Amino acid sequence: MDATMNQKRALITGITGQDGSYLAGLLLNKGYDVHGLVRRSSSFNTGRIDAIYQDPHLAGVRLHLHYADLTDANSLSRLVRQIEPTEVYNLGAQSHVRVSFDQPIYTADASGVGALKLLEAVRDYRDHSGAPVRYYQASSSEMFGKVVEVPQTEKTPFYPRSPYGVAKVYAHWITVNYRESYGLHASCGILFNHESPRRGETFVTRKITRAVGRIHCGLQKKLYLGNLHAKRDWGFAGDYVEMMWRMLQQDQPDDYVVATGETHEVREFCEKAFARVGLDWRDFVEIDPRYLRPAEVDLLLGDPTKAKQKLGWEPTVTFDELVAMMVDADLELAQREKTLLDAGHSVTFKTSRD
User: Fold this and answer.
1) How far apart are CA 310 and CA 303, in angstroms?
2) Cα torsion 22, 25, 31, 36: sign
3) What is the DSSP string of 223-279?
4) Confidence bin at 315 (pLDDT 50/70/90)
5) How confident is the model at residue 291 (pLDDT cuts 50, 70, 90)?
6) Distance between CA atoms of 307 and 194, rounded to whole angstroms?
7) End-to-end Cα distance, the chain
8) Torsion angle of alpha carbons 145, 150, 155, 159, nearest 10°?
9) Residue 350: Cβ within 10 Å count
10) Lowest mean per-residue pLDDT among 40-44, 74-78, 97-101
11) Is the peptide bond prior to 151 cis by the omega test (within 30 degrees of 0)?
12) How far apart, in whole angstroms, are the C-alpha atoms of residue 149 and residue 203?
């Protein structure tokens, strides 16, 4: 690859996801060349990065997309050698906890062993080229699962309660192992729940705010949810990708909990989201057993003290601001849908039970 010695190049797996899109924007603003891994499919899934990918000053110049898959070791090795990254961010995964019970083998392969395949590709490239490369692993608060202490820190034992959580524990520890065994500059961010208007619509927060917009516009009547009493530490995804970058700028790699230090029930998220448009959530929310997990995680609450002290990181968006941000974005989306429908155009969106 023809590049200057001082030019930073980042490879992001999962670039088309929520975190990947925010991270791509952050790194481009910092002057990086950004390369993203995307899985081949019959339809485009680049909506979250279309704004930057369609910029003629970025697409093909400083932002590049490549077809590859975390389950395909050969494609990963080939891409790493081709791109010659200075930083690698592994954000790709089958990341839906409930779906991981339905697809446990694929989840283990993509979210767990996929990290090993990428680490091997990075180690092989470093050993043969002599070039320094830094690696970030997206670990998850779901690794704590049935928590043994509150709040959870970097030293809290893991007790995963889903195939996704188990896969993430493997990915986390194999990253630590490669750091200690091979001297890789490899860090893990143990991220607690982080949301945004770019969150996938099957995740509970976005499912709620999407329904609020549709209900307010008369496009939907009910919202079906599972456990309303589950407690989560919710932050803003845009804040959390800043933390990923900061980890890789340190002289020594390490692991960090990334969280707000506050916990809120799903019920509270519902209450505030519906109240944003002047509605009472109790008039619209019903429980559907299909959305209950076989093994529930009741409480997640992170302690970000280490991140604050060592990296100078602080979350900037409060829980109330996050809910308002997501509701406002989905209300605007629902209003556009309603306008199209009123004009006689067909609009495809999920039903209230999807």
Assistant:
1) 13
2) positive
3) EEES-TT-EE--EEHHHHHHHHHHHHTSSS--EEEE--S--EEHHHHHHHHHHTTT-
4) very high
5) confident
6) 16
7) 45
8) -20
9) 13
10) 40-44
11) yes
12) 26
Alpha helices, H only, the chain: 18-29, 50-53, 73-83, 97-102, 104-107, 114-129, 163-182, 204-216, 237-248, 266-275, 305-311, 319-342
- Residue whose structure tokens are 């990181």: 313
β-bridge pairing 185-191 and 134-140: parallel
* Residue 274: HSE in the Cβ half-sphere, 13 Å Cα cutoff: 18
Q: Which residues are catalytic?
A: 140, 142, 164
Task: Give the single-character DSSP code of 111.
Answer: I
Nearest to residue 136, comparing CAs of 23, 273, 30? 23
Give the phi and the psi of residue 149 in degrees, each rounded to 5. -155, 155
Cα 48 from Cα 21, distance rounded (Å)? 6
State the pTM of this model: 0.91
Q: Fold for 9-196+234-258, please state it.
A: Rossmann fold (3.40.50)
What type of residue is 140?
Answer: S
How many CB atoms neighbour CB 179 within 10 A? 21
Q: How far is CA 140 from CA 12, 118, 167, in A?
A: 17, 18, 10
Give the Cα separation of 109 and 259 in Å (integer).
27
260 touches 316 (CB < 8 A)? no
